[in-house]
């Protein structure tokens, strides 16, 4: 796995928020938490996650999952 860029939680949140809003510009109700550490044995690319804080449409959930998958390959949550 290539080296990922380390970001603190607030900076990673900004990256995720911008990427999500670019992909779902019409959605104004979906929000998610600041990234938090998560342990996954053998899956370092899943070392952080977010939770949806509002009821989102199925389309928005798919968009967010795609944004998260891409971001997990590029970013690591700094300690």
β-strand percent reads 5-15%
Spatial order of strands in the largest sheet: 1-4
Low-confidence segments, given as residue ranges, are: none
The arrangement of helices and strands along the chain is EHEEHE
Number of domains: 1
Outline the biggest β-sheet: 2 strands, parallel
Radius of gyration: 12 Å
Q: What is the overall silhouette?
A: globular
- The portion of residues assigned to helices is 40-55%
Number of helical segments with 4 or more residues = 2
Distance between the amino and carboxyl termini: 20 Å
Mean pLDDT: 88
Structural class: alpha+beta
Give the total of beta strands. 4
Describe this structure in words.
By secondary structure, the protein is α+β, with helices and mostly antiparallel strands. It has one domain. The protein contains two helices and four strands, in the order E-H-E-E-H-E. It has helices at about 10-25, 60-75; strands at about 5, 35, 50, 75. It has a two-stranded parallel ribbon. A two-stranded antiparallel sheet has the order 2-3.
């Amino acid at each position: 796995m290539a080296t990922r860029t380390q970001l603190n939680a607030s900076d990673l949140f900004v990256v995720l928020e911008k990427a999500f809003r670019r992909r779902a510009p019409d959605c104004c109700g979906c929000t998610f938490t600041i990234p938090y550490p998560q342990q996954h044995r053998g899956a370092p690319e899943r070392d952080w996650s977010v939770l949806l804080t509002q009821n989102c449409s199925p389309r928005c959930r798919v968009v967010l999952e795609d944004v998260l998958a891409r971001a997990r390959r590029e970013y690591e949550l700094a300690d």
